[in-house]
Each structure stands twice: as C-alpha cells, then as structure tokens.
Specification:
2-enoyl-CoA Hydratase, Chain A, domain 1; 324 residues; 48% helix; globular; eight-stranded mixed β-sheet
C-alpha cells in the first residue's frame, strides 16, 4: 500500500485504517531520524491496513456509500476534464442571464474525437466551493448546458456529462428565474438530441439537478457514487420529522449503484480502487476513460432517429420491466 503524499481525510468508519496508517507514518519518521530498521514492521502494518480497508469496503452500508460519494478528495468534474480531454476550450454563459460556474463545459478531444463535455463542479476546497456554489446550479447553469447540447447537435458532436451535485440550487433567486422549467428543458433537450449522450455519475447524483444532465443514451455510475431523487437527510426530515434518521433513509432510497443497476436505472457500474476513488484518483480516471470509450463505441453508429427512439424507449421502460 502506498502512503498518501497529501494529508488524507478519513471517514468515521475508516478509523481502524487511519490508526494503522498513522502508525506507519510514525515509524517512517523514526526510521529517517535513526539507524533502526523498520522496513519489516512497516510492511506488516501496511499489509494489515490494506486487508482492513478491503474488508470495510466490501460491506459498505448505503449510508457509508453516501459519505464516500461526498468525500472532498474524490476527483471532481474538472479533474476528469483535465485528465481525459485534450485541447479543451471552455464555453461560458447561457446567452440569457449570466454565467453559472457550478456548470462547466466546452469543446475538446477525447481519444482524437471531438466531444462536448458538460460537468457539474463542486470545488475542492472552501474557496473553489464558494466559486462553484458547492455544485448546485442555478437556472442559467442548466440553460448553458442546453445551449451546449444544442451546439453539439448542430455539429454532430457527441456529448459527455459528468454529474456530481447535491441538487439544484434551492434559493429564491433560482426559483424566481424558473429553476424547475430550466431542469425540465434540460431533460427535453437531452431527449431531442440527435447525437449520443453519455452521462457519468462520479459522486453524488442529487434530485432533478442531476437528472437534468443524466438523461443519456448510456448512464455510467461509479461503484460508490449515489443517485437519488432526494438526499437522505431531506427524506429523513420529511418522513420521520427527524434528520438524524438519514442512515435509515439512505437504505430505503435504493440510491447505490448496485441498487440502481438491479432496478435497471443505470447501464454500467465502474469499479473504484479499494478505499474509493479518493485513494487513487489516477486509477479511477483511467477506469472512467475505458468505460467512456466502450459506451461511445456502442452508441455512435446509430443514425439520429434510431438513437432518439432508443433513448426514449429506455426511459419509458424504467419502472415497467419485470425485475424478478
């Protein structure tokens, strides 16, 4: 197990692993300042920590997956764009009101193929989270996404969306500017698109704010991501009048990738490194790269009318198929 070069943030249920890794760091510091040979002990502790980590992540509860999906050190939309898209040219503004920095998008090349990429960016620290409004888009963000999707259709360019949001911004300013209509129009624009749309849920897929960009021909989802009509906390507050019941709500919502695959609401689960995407972002991004290549190859050959019909039938079938 390679120790992190940056300060790793541990979740509550990862405490046993945190204790072991802290011991390893302490031993390594001792080894650097003395002639004591600590190699064998470090190897033993590292092996024990990795075994513990595998055991924990093999049986995560839905609530624990919620915490992993929200982990601040998971790779964000901007990280995937930087790693996977070359010659990226960002495009800004909805041409109606303003630029919404929660939604980032633009043209670039993915494996030498021109693509339109649209992502919801949460930010990596407090400053960038404030800039990107914690990944909660306002109407102008969704209208920008619509503009970019229509542009992609005009030039016959496939669309890749990267979804990571707790939901659309619920402020009064967003409601005054037509938040619900903007989300609905984004879904309509996806359905009407004449080019392939591949959606990847990379972290938290919350409510209509996520669906607005996830109405695609292929919906890919990271192993420990979540996708739900409402957050567990909000669901708990509504059903039990008690926000502390979020863990129970998470189990009832069937929001994990495994649940959604069983319910046939997503197409592909992308495996994460042991311990989640946050422990090895490079490997995670490589896995998303491979999954995108496969998904694009599956849908790129369809003529526009067939592509649109398949997309429509895909969503009309949700909730109607026999899952027994």
């Amino acid at each position: 197990m390679l120790l992190p070069k940056i300060m790793r943030q541990f979740l509550d249920f990862e405490k046993p692993v945190a204790e072991l890794e802290n011991k390893i760091v302490e031993l390594q510091n001792v080894g650097q300042s003395s002639d004591v040979n600590i190699t064998e002990e470090v190897s033993r502790l590292a092996e024990k920590a990795e075994k513990q980590l595998r055991a924990i992540y093999a049986k995560l509860t839905p609530w624990q997956k919620v915490q992993v999906a929200r982990h601040a050190q998971r790779p964000h939309a901007s990280d995937y764009i930087k790693a996977l898209i070359t010659d990226f040219t960002p495009l800004a503004g909805d041409r109606l009101f303003a630029e919404d920095k929660a939604v980032i998008g633009g043209l670039g090349r993915f494996h030498d193929q021109t693509v339109m990429v649209i992502g919801i960016e949460r930010g990596a620290d407090l400053d960038t989270r404030l800039v990107h409004n914690f990944g909660m888009a306002r109407p102008e963000g969704y209208r920008k996404a619509q503009r970019l999707m229509r542009m992609a259709g005009q030039f016959n360019i496939p669309v890749i969306t990267l979804v990571d949001t707790p939901g659309a911004w619920p402020g009064i300013d967003a409601e005054q500017r037509g938040q619900a209509e903007a989300i609905a129009r984004s879904m309509e624009t996806c359905f009407r698109s004449s080019v392939p749309i591949i959606a990847v849920i990379i972290g938290e897929g919350g409510s209509g704010g996520a669906i607005a960009l996830a109405t695609g021909d292929k919906i890919l989802m990271l192993e420990h991501a979540i996708y739900s009509v409402i957050s567990p906390e909000a669901c708990s507050s509504i059903l039990w009048r008690d926000a502390t019941q979020a863990a129970q709500a998470a189990g009832a919502l069937c929001l994990t990738a495994q649940d959604l695959s069983r319910l046939k609401l997503i197409d592909t689960i992308i495996s994460e490194p042991v311990g989640g995407a946050q422990r090895d972002p490079t490997t995670m991004i490589e896995s998303v790269d491979a999954a995108l290549v496969e998904a694009l190859s599956e849908v790129s050959s369809y003529p526009a009318p067939i592509l649109q019909a398949k997309r429509r039938d895909k969503f009309l079938a949700m909730g109607r198929e026999d899952l027994s």
